[in-house]
Amino acid sequence: MIARASFNDSIRFSRRASSTGMSNGSWDCFTSACSARVVSSATSNWDAGPLISVWNKDEHSAWATELFTKYQGPFYTTELVLCEVAHMTERDAEIAQMVREKRFLIGASLWEHSAQMERCLAAFAHCDLADASIIVASESKPRLKVLTTDRRHFLTYRRADSSPQPLELPTTA
Predict the structure, then answer these.
(1) Distance (Å, whole) CA 77 – CA 115
(2) What does each of the 173 residues of the chain score in pLDDT, given as a tens digit?
(3) Helices 79-89 and 92-100 meet at what angle, rounded to 10?
(4) Is 162 left (phi over 0), alpha (psi -120 to 50) or beta?
(5) pTM score over 0.85
(6) 15 backbone dihedrals φ, ψ, rounded to 5°
C-alpha cells in the first residue's frame, strides 16, 4: 500500500506579502523537511515523475521535494502530465485547485499542438502522449529545464531541431 500525504503536508505554498518587497503573485515554496528557503529566478517544465514522487512517497521523494525549494513557481507543465499525475495519485481535486490558483501553468495542449505531438510519437517508439507534450512544451521554452525521473526516455528525446532538452534528473545510486 502506498502512503499518501496531502500535497500541503509535503509542500506548502503561500503568497508572499507585499511587504516583503517581492511582487504579488510570486510563490514561496516551503518543505517540512527543509528549514532553509532557496529562491531561484528560474522556472521549469515538470514531467509527472517528480509530482507523483512528492505525493506517493517513493525513492525520488526527497529529490522531488528539494525541487520545490530550488525552483520558484508557478511551474510549467501540461494537461496531459497533470492527468497522469491525477491518475497515479488520486489527487484530482487538489490538482484542479492548483491550476485554478495558477500554481501550475499549462504549456503545450493536445488541441493546439497535436501535429507536433504526433511527430514526437512517430519519432520515438517509447514516447507516450504525456512525454510528447513535455517535449513540445520544451520546444516553446527551450531554456527551461525539464524536471523528470524518467532518465531512460528523456535522455533519448530530441526537439524538432534535434537539440536535447535541458534536464534535471535525480542522482543515481
Answers:
(1) 19
(2) 334 444 444 444 333 322 333 222 222 332 232 223 333 333 789 999 999 999 998 999 999 999 988 887 788 999 999 999 999 999 999 999 999 998 888 888 889 999 999 999 999 999 999 999 999 999 988 999 999 999 999 999 999 999 999 999 998 75
(3) 150
(4) left
(5) no
(6) -65, 135
